[in-house]
């Protein structure tokens, strides 16, 4: 036990003292804070700056619709920003006017041009061409504005007051979805989905990044022949366990720091955004019980041990960095395949796909915490997932320890799967 603790301590301290660990640990909260502030600030700034300005409206209807559109789209534009220009053209000259407007846009004399013709008045087609044609917000606002003006014109023709119709039909209805679990009210459904997605992302990134650390650590010890000295005094199983637990403790430390920093960032969210003149809606952090926190920790430890052992076995079986990248491709495929199902499971966390992925050992460390963060999971599914993952974890460590023992001292060509199978039998 003393040797195991010494190895864990060495692996842990060796990594937490590096500048890259400090940079990554600090960069995580900073990056998260930027994700809170920058999108909200850019959305506010973009709303004011990407309006339908400096555009040309070609009105071929002789109804004054172009002027109405220009006035409606000019509302709320920034001071000094040019308003849309209206050109009333006969239908026979519309093609030539389009060509002229196209050249103006090409020479950056205008942002784009809108065509209002008889098809537009009939509510059939609205044509726009410009540099901001890919801006979904601008195009949707333009379409809605023209649609409302056409509707208002039809109501006037029918003798109905459009202002009265707008007053009766406009209803800014907001919906708050709150989930209910076995213990009662469980908070906002939207917040639960966001929290679950963050949990899945953190678990995925931790396994990928720190699994690679285990791989590189084993490969470095093998190529520098340090392993020959260490194995002579420490059993290979103890060395493998110490490396996995030590690197796992590093990942857990970083995750705890990130979680604490994230909570602080959310507490400071409103004051931070207020500095940029952005008002926010109330955002309540989801309640995390002690039981849920322990389950998330347990799945992280089991999942990391499962993958880290396989990463260590892959590192012991190769001799170069290039061979290592090829050897871990099956592990990366399993992780990427799990990540692909995160979004579908967020949409339907109780479906057959979610249940199956929760029971598979390679995906359970990510998918089951994802489902637990969204809502309650039947106890038998939770127990089944934990048992399957625990058994697979023991099997992975057992196989990896035997491959690790022989492969750590083997040099030369890369072994085949058949040879690695013999390594397991040699170590019995």
The radius of gyration is 31 Å
Query: What is the global morphology?
Result: elongated
Note the total helix count.
Answer: 19
Largest sheet: 4 strands, mixed
Distance between the termini: 22 Å
Q: What oligomeric state do the depicted chains represent? A: single chain
Number of strands: 6
What's the number of structural domains? 2
Largest beta sheet: strand ordering: 2-1-3-4
Written description of the protein model:
The chain has two domains: 48-168, Rossmann fold, CATH 3.40.50; 188-426, no CATH class. By secondary structure, the chain is of the alpha/beta class. Helix content is 68%, strand content 6%. Helix 8 (189-223) runs parallel beside helix 12 (290-316). The longest helix is centred in the middle third of the chain and has 35 residues, at 189-223. The protein has helices spanning 2-16, 19-49, 65-73, 94-106, 118-121, 136-157, 162-169, 189-223, 226-231, 236-267, 269-274, 290-316, 321-327, 329-340, 342-347, 352-359, 364-374, 379-407, 417-426, and strands at 56-59, 85-88, 112-116, 127-130, 178-181, 184-188. The strands form two sheets. The protein has a four-stranded mixed beta sheet with strand order 2-1-3-4, sandwiched between helices. The mean pLDDT is 77.
């Amino acid at each position: 036990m003393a040797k195991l603790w010494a190895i864990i301590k060495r692996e842990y301290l060796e990594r937490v003292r590096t500048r890259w660990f400090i940079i990554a640990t600090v960069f995580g909260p900073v990056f998260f804070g930027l994700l809170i502030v920058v999108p909200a600030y850019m959305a506010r700034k973009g709303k004011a700056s990407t309006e339908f300005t400096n555009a040309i409206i070609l009105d071929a209807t002789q109804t004054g619709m172009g002027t109405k559109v220009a006035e409606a789209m000019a509302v709320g534009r920034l001071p000094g920003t040019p308003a849309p220009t209206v050109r009333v053209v006969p239908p026979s000259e519309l093609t030539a006017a389009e060509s002229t407007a196209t050249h103006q846009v090409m020479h950056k004399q205008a942002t784009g041009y809108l065509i209002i013709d008889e098809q537009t008045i009939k509510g059939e087609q609205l044509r726009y061409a410009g540099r901001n044609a890919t801006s979904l917000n601008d195009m949707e606002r333009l379409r809605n504005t023209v649609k409302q003006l056409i509707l208002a014109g039809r109501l006037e023709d029918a003798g109905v007051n459009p202002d009265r119709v707008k007053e009766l039909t406009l209803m800014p209805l907001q919906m708050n979805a709150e989930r209910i679990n076995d213990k009662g009210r469980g908070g906002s459904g939207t917040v639960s989905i966001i929290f679950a997605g963050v949990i899945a992302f953190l678990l995925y990134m931790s396994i990928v990044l720190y699994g690679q650390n285990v791989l590189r650590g084993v490969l470095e010890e093998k190529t520098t022949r340090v392993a020959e000295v260490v194995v002579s005094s420490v059993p290979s199983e103890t060395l493998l366990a110490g490396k996995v637990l030590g690197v796992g403790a590093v990942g857990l430390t970083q995750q705890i720091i990130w979680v604490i920093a994230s909570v602080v960032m959310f507490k400071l969210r409103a004051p931070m955004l207020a500095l940029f003149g952005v008002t926010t809606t109330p955002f309540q952090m989801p309640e995390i019980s002690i039981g849920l926190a322990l389950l998330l920790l347990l799945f992280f430890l089991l999942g990391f041990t499962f993958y880290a052992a396989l990463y260590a076995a892959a590192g012991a079986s190769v001799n170069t960095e290039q061979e290592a990248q090829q050897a871990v491709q099956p592990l990366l495929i399993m992780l990427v395949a799990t990540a692909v199902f995160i979004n579908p499971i967020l949409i339907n966390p109780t479906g057959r796909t979610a249940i199956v992925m929760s029971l598979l050992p390679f995906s359970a460390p990510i998918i089951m915490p994802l489902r637990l963060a969204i809502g309650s999971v039947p106890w038998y599914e939770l127990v089944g997932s934990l048992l399957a993952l625990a058994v697979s974890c023991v099997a992975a460590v057992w196989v990896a320890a035997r491959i690790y023992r022989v492969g750590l001292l083997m040099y030369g060509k890369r072994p085949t799967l058949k040879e690695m199978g013999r390594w397991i039998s040699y170590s019995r």
